[in-house]
Amino acid sequence: MNILIAGCGYVGTALAMRLAADGHGVWGLRRRPEGLPDTVRPLEADLSDPATLRDLPPGLDVVYYTAGAADGSETAYRTAYVDGPRHLLEALEQQNQRPRRVMFTSSTGVYAQCRGEWVNEDSPAEPSHAGGRHLLAGERLFLDGAFPATVLRLAGIYGPGRTRLIDSLRQGNATYQDSPPVYLNLIHRDDCVGALRHLAALARPASLYVGVDYRPVERGTLLRWLSGVLDTPPPRLVAASTNRRRNKRCRNARLAASGYSFRYPTFQHGYSAIIDALTKEKKPHV
Ligand SMILES: NC(=O)c1ccc[n+]([C@@H]2O[C@H](COP(=O)([O-])OP(=O)(O)OC[C@H]3O[C@@H](n4cnc5c(N)ncnc54)[C@H](OP(=O)(O)O)[C@@H]3O)[C@@H](O)[C@H]2O)c1
Asked: Is 179 helix (H, G, I), strand (E, B) or coil?
């Protein structure tokens, strides 16, 4: 198959490598494609500039949109999740492409629930911030567009090189609050890759999935567990903030029922693998 990954970054590059290893022709599109692995064909283009999208590789079978916002500003969100999708979908149509599936990575940030409620694909997604509304608009562009589309709402991505919580513990500045408890919803990078690959291979995937592991966890619980494993000073309990914008627990039941088997079903599995790898890196070579 011919596969385009538009916004070939942290998740996109790992996905591209996996799909190339499966034997597919894979193009990785980004503004600075230098440094993409050899097995991925680099495509220098800017999703915010339609002129740069005029020569997409022909005969694309599957297209993934995995571009992310450059920062937290409303403009960055609009560029990444509304303008970019619109330009790419228009370019595919203008070039008479007929991908059998287009996939969009959205975010569980579209849920405004803030009292620790459980949410799934059927829960109201009524974001209270502009960024969330842009994500929802991007979802709609894909789902209402000309090609069969699937949206995967990803939770917080962690994995090799994305070790913010480990770093904060080692630096002694990790904090949490416990009344009310704040939940983290996580997914390991390799399960983002696995789920995106799995869903695109299904004959009739649903239009929407939540991409999260099996175990939303209180931030304090995760930090104390990590601190025990890493033997760092414990995290500090701080006063609860009174205006939490979002605090929910995400369910992966639809993704699991689709047949996807998680490589890292919980944070313990994922972080144990990361810590093992970090420990091996540190051991002196003999
Ligand atoms: N990180 C998380 O915790 C999280 C949580 C929920 C959902 N998500 C979603 O999951 C997806 C993958 O996340 P990620 O962490 O892998 O993202 P990432 O590492 O930030 O990668 C995004 C890639 O998009 C490219 N890009 C950005 N703007 C572009 C543009 N205008 N034209 C072309 N390429 C552009 C960037 O490369 P250049 O700068 O070279 O262009 C970058 O390589 C994103 O859609 C993100 O919104 C992420």
From this structure: coil
